[in-house]
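Progress report, Aim 2. The chain analyzed during this reporting quarter is listed below.
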Amino acid sequence: MIHGEPLSRFRVVDTTKIGSMKEALGLMCSRPSIEIDRRPEQVHASINSCQLQHIALSYSKFAGVRLNFAETRWFTQVVPVAGRGEFVLARTPVTTCPGCGVAISPGLNFRMNFDAGQKQLSMRIDPGALARLLTAINGSPAVKPLKMEPLQDFASPRARVLRDLILLVVDQLGRADEKLPDLVLAELEQGLMVAYLFGNRHNYSRLVEREPCAIASRQVRRVEEYIEANWDQPITMEDIAAVAGTSARSVFRTFRHSRGCSPMTFVKQTRLKHSQRLLQFADSTTTVKDVAFTCGFSDVGRFSRDYYLTFGELPSATLLRAQ
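Predicted structure tokens for the chain:
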């Protein structure tokens, strides 16, 4: 659940002027042509947008306009929040509502039509970053360009995971009273891109969903050693695949079978151990939030819960004893 207007800290434009709409959209993605669908006094656009390293997250409300975009350079995920809309992708219409979204591949021209009260979240992903992630997951470069199936049904469990993760990240970015640490932002981006690949259907879906091969125990140990040595740095699927010398899917399968958890769960466990040590040797200026962010936890409440489940006390109790 999102508290208040999504990404309100990152206002781009709130206007009734067509020129301002074009300029704002041109800065974010590409400059569209705009058709007025109602009387000029009923035209309105409100856009909030937060740019990360490889991903941009946006919230938008439009009324009385149709937007026509030339070929997009991004992979895009649209999550309707309220109302209905229509996307026409290369002449194929796709209707969106809170129960279904749309995925857009680079190279497509598309039109967006909005009903009154239509609001949406969108995520734009750099295609180079997504291609590198897909290579790490499969263990080999993609032969053909990645192409997404446009219509997405949020009744699908994997699609819901993607939608809920977008809502969670948007809420955290909107509520944070300061910029989240680079470690946290990098791994949030990684999680969103992984969820995008698994939450949509595309021409590589069968490949990423097939049963991966097992790997040798020494490769699992190399991954463990890498995680323990780099716990305070962003750890991505690309890193894990490179360290093991195989596909990330094979690492995850063998790691889970031999260690009883995924590599990312092992990352969390390792960081919790370091967070305990940081709290035990804290000085008078240290806060639980400082330690959570240092150890890669973006939500202090979730960090406190995980810490309690692991060590049997809240991090604030550990900190209080140290101080």
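The CA atoms of residues 54 and 126 lie 5 Å apart. The first strand starts at residue 11 and ends at 15. These observations will guide the mutagenesis work planned for the next reporting period.
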